[in-house]
Amino acid sequence: MGKIFYMMGKSSSGKDTIFEKIIQKKELELHQIVLYTTRPARANETDGVQYHFVDEARLLELQKAGKVIELRAYQVVGGVWKYFTVDDEQTDLKNKNYLAIGTLVSYEKLRDYYGEEKLVAIYIEVENGERLARALERERRQNQPNYDELCRRFLADNADFSEENLTRAGIKKRFQNKELQKCVEEIAVFISENSR
Ligand SMILES: Nc1ncnc2c1ncn2[C@@H]1O[C@H](COP(=O)(O)OP(=O)(O)OP(=O)(O)O)[C@@H](O)[C@H]1O
């Protein structure tokens, strides 16, 4: 029986960094769930790799078929971009295990859709001051750092991942991302123990 290992954590807790290291561990035999989006593909992106790029009409079709498990909409200059998870033929929970990154709300929606026994939460935590320092360091390296957005996300994530919300979602286990390699190894052992 397959599982979805669902990684969550506040901004700059290290989700992307840890995801890349875990997915490279071939012995864990983890697959990826490719999200769908209505945003146009960028020059370096390939359909079906970073995202499945679809239009609003296709989204509507999928919604009518009851296949859209969760959806997030973001207002951008000139429109709204939607990102969503679809129950498509690529998700084979009878035979495969998956690794995904998402929000607390999307975790709850997938859990309600697939069932409690299919979803395994991996909550990553970093002390707030250290997390802010890492976020600032990462932002400084950008061509056009956006410190306003950094502050907005920092505060928004503190609210989204409040203790109250974590309790409501039933998140108990936490992985501390202090020393990266140690955290990766702990998560790899946890996944291995909870696979099948
Ligand atoms: N254990 C660690 N020690 C020091 N730096 C780390 C550690 N883990 C991750 N980082 C660095 O912290 C920054 C944030 O990590 P990352 O981008 O993986 O976070 P994230 O949770 O995916 O953030 P976001 O949700 O904002 O995309 C990166 O610059 C990364 O290299």
Automatic annotation (TrEMBL):
UniProt xrefs under Pfam families: Guanylate_kin (PF00625)
Keyword vocabulary terms for this entry: Kinase, Transferase
Domain of life: Bacteria
Residue span(s) of domain Guanylate kinase-like: 2-192
UniProt GO molecular function: kinase activity
InterPro entries cross-referenced by the UniProt entry: GK/Ca_channel_bsu, Guanylate_kin-like_dom, Guanylate_kinase_CS, P-loop_NTPase
Protein name: Guanylate kinase
